[in-house]
Design goal:
Length: 80
């Protein structure tokens, strides 16, 4: 069953737009937006399972220049 996660991202000052643009070029990233509040960018990622999502975040998302810190929130499908 595919897993989806929302990644909250802190970016280096002045790099939020560059980070969001770079995220959109990462194939497993479905969406990326600049946001207001305590984080600068939010991205939606989908993988084969939670381990795949973890690998995507570690091996692709974290390598994007300008990302300082991330919080990954794994989506859990509701029932009924």
């Amino acid at each position: 069953m595919p897993s989806k996660a929302y990644i909250l991202i802190d970016a280096t000052i002045g790099k939020s737009r560059d980070v969001a643009r770079a995220l959109k070029s990462v194939k497993p990233v479905l969406e990326a937006y600049l946001i207001t509040g305590p984080y600068d960018v939010i991205a939606v990622v989908q993988g084969k399972d939670s381990e795949d999502v973890s690998n995507i975040v570690s091996n692709q998302v974290h390598r994007i220049p300008g990302i300082v810190r991330t919080v990954t929130c794994l989506a859990i499908p509701g029932r009924g």
